[in-house]
Amino acid sequence: MTNINVDYQTIANNIMPNRGYEIEDFQYYTWQINSWSSLEKRITGPEFEAGGWKWRILLFPYGNKNQVGYVSIYIEFVDPKGAPAGWHSCVQFALLLWNPEDLTICVSHNARHCFTAEDPDWGFTRFCKQHKLFVPSKSENQTRSLIENNSCNITAFVRVLKESIGVPWHNFIKNYNSKKVTSYVGLKNQGATDYMNVELQLLYSIKYFRKTIYQIPTEDDEPVKSISLAIQRIFYQLQISDTPVETTELTKSFGWDSSDCNIRHDVQEFDRVLLDYLKNKMKNTNVDNAISRLFAGKIKRYIRCVNINYECSRIEDYYDILLEVKGYKTLSESFMNYIREESCEGNNKYQTEIYGLQDAKKGVIFESFPSVLRIQLKRFEYDLQKDTVVKINDRLEYPLKIDLQKYLSSNNDKSNPHNYLLYGVIVHNGDLHEGSYYVFLKPEKNDKWFKFDDNRVIPVTDKEVLEDNYGVEAPNVINSTNAYILIYIRESDIDFVLSPILDDNMPKHLQNRLDEEKVLCERRKKEAEERYFYLSIKVVTPAIFERYQGFDLINFYDQQYPLSEVPQIKVLKSETYEAFETMVAQKFGFPVEQIRLWVLVNRQNRTIRPDVPIVDHLDMTMDQVRIKMAQRQDELKLFLEVAKPINGKIFFPQTDENSPNIMVFIKYFDPDTQSLEGLCHLYVQELDKVCDIIPILCEKKNFPQHTPLKLHEEIKPDMIVDMNPEFTFQQSEIQHGDIICFQKALTEEEIQEHAVAGRIHDIPVFYESLLMRIIVQFKPKYIDREQKPEFELVLNKKYTYDDVIKHVATFLNTDPLKLRFTTLHQTSDANNIVIKRDTTQTLSEILQIDYLPESILLFYEILDISIVELETNKSFKVYWLGAVVKEEEVVNISLPKTALVNEIFQIIIKKLALKPNSKIRLYDVLHCKIRKEYDINDPIDKIPENMTLYAEEIPQDEIELGANDKVIQVYHFTKEPLYTHGIPFKFVIKAGEPFSTIKLRLKLRLGINEDFSKVKVVVVQSLSNAKPQYIDDNVILSDYGLTDELLGLNHFVLQKLEITVVSIWVGSVNSYMHSLALMVNGL
Question: Which end of the chain has the least Cβ crowding within 10 Å, N or C?
Answer without folding.
Answer: N
